[in-house]
Write a structure and sequence with these properties.
alpha/beta, Isopropylmalate Dehydrogenase, twelve-stranded mixed beta sheet, 12 strands
Length: 335
């Protein structure tokens, strides 16, 4: 029996940024077509102009339903929302128009996923200021998708060179993030991490909980959070039968994860994990959102207005995001 390749909806992102460029570059790569059928959601006028500026011979097959995608090399299957006016539109500038367009791409991809028309969603970069100007109350992709899907607290993971990094907190000031390092919160996060990883084929994954303080507090010499919150959380998780270690000093835990010694790391705050992942491979890092009714991956960089339209944007992060989405769908299928 032939197994159908996953259909992955790819959002173009902010049309004023590098999203259109990296979308066209990525979806013409044979490596993408070999693992899935990508369907690009954006504005055809912007995409055609971008293709011409890049001197690429992209052919666009406009579809209304992703099931109509042809999935052929050199052909980009696209859903055209016709929501950008090329006469007034400016590349490289924050605008409410671009923000509204980006939101509409995300909404359309979400609808396709919720109704089973696509197997996963991979999102291009958006600009927080632009979507705010468009009247969107959500700070980023994750919060927006959670609202569209009626989900209270999605789980964010970074994937970089095989290492999986999860986050106890995301967009919190550092002082608030430190106060959020509590036993109950850590236990809940690791239980969810294990459940999500098992859904994509990892059985009994080993999770390392990062330390908060230098040297995991050096037995209380440089902080108390490890003894008061992290160690009790790890002990409770072990009693529950989960494979977990920690607290592991933050200056070594990510290196060990890259070496394959852990299946996942729980980073305690935003920059702790972001800096580790992006230093290793900025363009190869992929953001994954668990806890939604569907799989979602994303580039882990912004709109880069300063280089938009110049043909120099690196498409590797989007390529990795689309490929990872396809691999994770296959994992859920047991393939």
């Amino acid at each position: 029996m032939t197994i159908r390749k996953p259909i992955v909806a790819v959002t173009m992102g902010d049309p004023a940024g590098v999203g259109p460029e990296i979308s066209v570059k990525a979806l013409l790569k044979p490596t993408i077509q070999s693992v899935c059928t990508p369907v690009l959601i954006g504005d055809l006028g912007v995409l055609q102009r971008t293709s011409q500026q890049l001197n690429l011979t992209a052919k666009f097959n406009v579809v209304v339903d992703p099931s109509r995608a042809v999935g052929k090399p050199g052909v980009i299957d696209a859903v055209d929302l016709k929501n950008v006016d090329l006469r007034s539109f400016e590349i490289g500038r924050v605008s409410a128009e671009a923000g509204r367009a980006a939101i509409e791409y995300i909404r359309k991809a979400t609808d396709f996923a919720l109704y089973g028309r696509v197997d996963a969603v991979a999102t291009g970069p958006i600009n927080k200021q632009a979507v705010n100007l468009a009247g969107c109350p959500y700070i980023g992709h994750t919060e927006m998708l959670a609202a569209f899907c009626g989900v209270a607290d999605p789980l964010t993971m970074f994937w970089v060179r095989g290492a999986r990094i999860f986050f106890l907190t995301r967009h919190l000031p550092l002082t608030e993030a430190i106060r959020a390092v509590k036993k109950e919160r850590i236990v809940e996060a690791v239980v969810r991490i294990v459940a999500e990883l098992e859904k994509v084929g990892l059985k009994q994954p080993l999770v390392a909980v990062a330390a908060l303080n230098p040297h995991a507090s050096d037995e209380g010499l440089v902080g108390s959070e490890e003894a008061q919150e992290i160690v009790p959380a790890v002990e409770e998780l072990k009693v529950r039968g989960l494979n977990v270690v920690g607290p592991v000093p933050a200056d070594t835990v990510f290196v060990k994860a890259l070496e394959g010694r852990y299946d996942a790391v729980l980073s305690l705050y935003h920059d702790q994990g972001h800096i580790a992942a992006k230093t290793v491979d900025f363009y190869g890092t992929v953001s994954v959102t668990f806890g939604l009714p569907f799989l979602r991956t994303s580039v882990d960089h912004g709109t880069a207005y300063d280089i938009a339209g110049k043909g120099v944007a690196d498409s590797r992060s989007l390529e990795e995001a689309v490929k990872l989405a396809a691999v994770m769908v296959a994992g859920r299928r047991g393939a």
